Amino acid sequence: MGRRVKTRVEVEGHIEEVEVELPQEDLPPWQQEGLVWVGKGVSRVDGSEKCTGKAKYTSDILLPGMLYGKILRCPHPHARLVRLDTSKARQLSGVKAILSHENTPPIPWFNDSSLFDQTLRCVGEEVAAVAAIDEYIAGDALDLIRVEYEPLPFVVDPEEALRPGAPLLRPGGNLLGGRSIIYSRGDIERGFNEADLVVEDDFSTQVQGHACMETHGSVAYWEGDYLTVWDSTQGVSAVREGIARALNMPISKVRVITEFMGGGFGSKNSAGKYAVIAALLSKMTGRPVKVMLDRKEEFYAAGHRPSSLQYVKVGVKKDGTLTAIYLKGIGGCGAYESYFFPSRFSMIDALARPYRELYDCPNVKTEVYPVFNNIPVHTAQRAPGHVEGTFALEQVMDQTAEKLGLDPIVLRMKNYSLKDQVEGVPYTRKALDQCYQQGAEKIAWEHRNKSPGKKRALICQGIGMASQIWGGGGGPPAYAIIKINPDGTANLLTGSQDIGTGSKTVFAQIAAEELGIPANDITVTLADTETTPYAPNSSGSRTVASVGPAIRSAAADAKRQLLDLAGSILGIKAEELVIGDGQVYSKRTPTQKVSLKEIARKMGNNMIIGMGSRGPNPPQAAINTFGAQFAQVEVNTGTGEVRVLKVVSVHDVGRVINPVTLNNQIEGGIVQGVGYGLMEEMVWDKGTGIMLNPNLHAYKLPTILDIPEVVAGVAEGADPANNIGAKGVGEPPVIPTAPAIANAIYNAIGVRLKELPITPDKVLKSLRR
Amino acid sequence: MKGFIFYNPRSLKEALSQLKEAGGKSKLMAGGTDLLGEMKAGVLQPERLIHLKAIPDLGFVRQDQDGLHLGALVSLDEITVHPAIQKRFKMLAQAAQEVGSPQLRHMGTLGGNLCQRPRCWYYRGDFVCLKRGGEQCYAVTGQNKYHAILEGGPCFIVHPSDTAPALIALGASVKIAGPNREKSLPMERFFVPPRQDIARENILETDEILTEILVPYPKEASRGVYLKARERRCWDFALASVALLLTIEEGICQDIRLVLGGLAPIPLRALKAEELLKGKPLNAEVIEQATQMALNGARPLSSNPYKVELAQSLIKQAFIMCKA
Fold first, then answer.
1. Active site residue A731
2. pTM
C-alpha cells in the first residue's frame, strides 16, 4: 500500500529526518465550528481509578513468588573496584541471587562503561545487586557485601573540571568530544561592530532533580525465553529496544507494559540499569523480580537537569534591532554523556538553542563546553536546555530594553522572527505576538514599576515577563487501532503512554470526535508492546501532535466502514450519511437514521477495525510552540524572601483538545518553574562528591503555599501542521517561569538576580552590592 | 532501616523502667516524625523503641495560677488551635504554626519538637561527622549556608526548633522525669551547645523523659511575636527566626526577652541586647543598637554572612510589630 516519504521530525528540540510509509492521503483539517468533543473540558477518563488507588502503577505490581532486588552503589566519586566479596551476603537466609561484574557480561552502558563497571565515576554508580524474598533482607544483604575500592582523584565542579591539571574522568580529557560545540551564522564580529550598544553578563543555573512521584523501577518476569517487564517509563518501545539490546535478544521476545505511570519529566525515556538488573536477577532465580529505586537512589541514579554557566553578549542598534548574539556556555554532564541521544547531539548544547531561534538576528555564535565531572549523569528534563538558556537570554533582553529605554515587549516584537533561522524555513504558525498582547492585558503590564529600585520599602512588588520557543510539533511514525464492539462502543489501542498528562483522555476525545461515538464509550488501551501498535516516547511535548493524528485516521477508517454498513441497512449511499450522537443519519433527511448500537448488533461478530498512522509533517516548514509568561512578585528586602503572587501564561500550542488537561500542564509547568526559579537545587559536597539533599525535605519542591495564582491562556486557532491542528504543551510552560520571575524581581527592587535558584541569601547579597 | 524491639508502655513509670533497662540502647518515640527519618537515613539504629503515645496524661493542656501546663505529648496542631493558647500565649501558637506542614503538626508533639535532632545535611547524610563520632565538621569547609553564625564550633549545627525560641521568650520551664526523681528547670538551661557536649543538644540523660512544659502568664501589657524566614513557605526550617516578648509601659521598655532561632546550635537569648533596652524608651536608634548587639560576635562561615543581615532585619520587624 501507500507511498514512502521523508519528513522532518523534531525530538526534544532536535530535528531529524525520518522516512514514513503513508497508507492514504491525510485527512483535511477539522472545521472549528461543529466540533463536539474536541475543545471540551472532559475530566480524566482514569481519574477515579487514580483517586481510589485502583490504578496499578509499576510500583504496585505484585506477582506470585516475586523477589525484591536492591542495588549496591559506589560511595566514592571516583574509584577503581579492587575486590568484591559476596560470600557473607550469599549465606544470608532469604537471599536468592547476587549480581555483579563477576557473573555478568560487560553489557555496554553510557560512553565507555558497562552495566557493572570496575571504574566508578560518581557516588551512586551501580556495583552489585541482590534479589531476596523481601526488601529488608535485600538491604541487609547489601550491607554484607565487602567491597575494596581504590579511590581516584575527582572533581565535582564543572568549571574546575575544565581547568588544566584537573583530575580526569577518562584519558581523553574532561571536555566531551575534546572541543566546544560551535554554532555560527553571519559574522559575529561584524554584528558587534554594527551595534550601537553592547550588553553582556554572566549567569548560572543549578542542577534540578525530576523528583518523580513514582520512582524509577521495573518488574521483570521470564516465561521460558520470553521476558515481560512492567516499567515506569515514558516509552515502552524504547525500553523494549534497550532491554533487548542489553540482553542480546530479539525484541519480539521482550514485552514492556506501562499501564499507569507516576511522572517522568524526561528522566524515563529509555531502559534503566535497574530494568536490566531486574531481568538478569529474574533469569537467575526463575522468579519475578521487582527493582524500584528508593527516594535517595532516585536522586542519585535517575538523571537530572544539568547545571550551566552562561556568558552572554548582545549587540543592538539604537532602535532595538539585534545585530549580534553571542553565548559561551559551560554545562556539567556528570560522569557520562546522556544516553538520551548518544553522540548525535549533546543535551548540554541544547541550552544554546533559544539564542539561535528565539529572536531575529543575522549574526549569532554559540560556543558550548560540555564537561565531565564526578557527579551522576544528567538527562533530559522538561524542555532540556531551553529552560537554562532562556533564563539568561530573557534577562539580557530586559537589560537591553532598559538601556535603550524601550518597553521589553516592544524590543521583543522589534526582533520577531517568522522563520526558523537555523533551518531557514518558515514556521507553520507563530502567534507569539498574540501571547504578548493577551498576557500584557491579563497582568496589567502598564502597572509595572517605571523606575525599578527607586523606592525601597520592606516589601516591594514588581512585574516581569519572558518568552518561550520550543518544538512540540511531533511527527511520524505513530499508529492507532480502533475496534468497534457489537454493543456500539469502541476500543482504541496505541503504544503511547499516559505519563500523567491526560493523554488517555485526550485520545478518547479525538476518537470520539471523528467516530461520533461518545468519549465515555471508548476504552483506551496504551503502552503494551505486545498488544498495541507503535507510538513514540511521551517526551518532547510530542504525544498529542504525533499520536492524535494517527488516532483520528484510525477513527476515520473505522467510520468509513461503519457508514458503508449503515448505508446498506438504510439503503442510502455511504457518502450521504453522517455520524453524530451515537446515530447514523442521512444528511438530507435526518429522520432517516439508525443507531450505532443497532448497526453493531447486526454486525454480530463481524468486526470493524480502523487503522491509522501519523502522516508526514509539511515539507519545508518548522513547527514550533511559542508563549509568554508574566509574573508578579513580592520581595521582602529585609529577609530576601520572594513570593510569586501571580503568573499569567499564554501559549501558541495550536488547537486545544481539552482545556482542562491543557491548564493542568500550564499549572504544572509553572509549579516546576517556580521551584527551579526559587528553591530547587541538588547540592553536592565538593570535598566528597556526596549529594547533600537526596530527600524530599532538603531538596525543596514548591509546596501549595509557594504556588502562585495561575492565569492560563492560549493564542486561539489551529496549526496547519497536522490533521488535528494541535501542538504539544507539556514543556512550553516551564521554560519562561524563572526568567519572568527574575525580571519581575528586578522590576520590584532594581537588582538583577543572575544565579539560580533565587534564594533569600542571594537576594540579600545582591541588595547589599 | 534496621530491625528493633518496639515497646508500648501504658504508664510513665513503665516507660522509665524500660528506658533504664535498655541502658542507653533505646530511643523514645512520640510523633516519630523526626526519629523515623533518622532511622531510615541510617543516622540512628536504636535496638529498642519506646513509644510514648499510649501513655495517658502526657497530652494535657491545663491552666492554673502558675500558668499554662503543656504535656510533652500535646500535638503541635493542638497548640495552634487551642483557644487559651491563642488568647494569652499567641506567640507560642504562632511558633507552632510555623513548624513543618499540617501533617507533621498533627503527628508531631511539643516535646518532640524541643528534643528533635539537628537538620545539618552532613549530620543527616553519609558523613561520619563530629556529632556522629567522626573527626571533623564538614560544614566548616563545605556547603554551609544553613549553618550557625553564633556560638558555633567545633560543630556548626543550628537548633531547628520553632517552639523553643518562643517558649524561652515566654520564660517557660521544663519538667523532666528520671528513674528516681522529677526535676524542673528553665527551658534555656535545657539546651546544650556542642562545646559542652558534641553528641547531644539537650541535658536529657538516657534514662530521662521530658514530661511537661510550664509557661508562666505573660504580663498583661506585654506583646509577643515569633518571626521566621525561610526558603519556602511551608515544610522548611528557619534560616533565622526571632521570638520577642516585650513589655512597654509609658513608653519605657519594662521587660524584654529576645531569642534567636536558626542561628546557633541552641536557641539563643540575646542577653546583651535585652540589657541595653531594659528601662529605656524604645526609639529607632536604640533598637538599631540592640539589633547590632544581638548579632555581636557573629562568625559567619563562607556561605552564610547573609544570616547576620537577615536576623537583624527580623529583629527590627519584631520590634515594629510589638510596638504597634
1. yes
2. 0.97
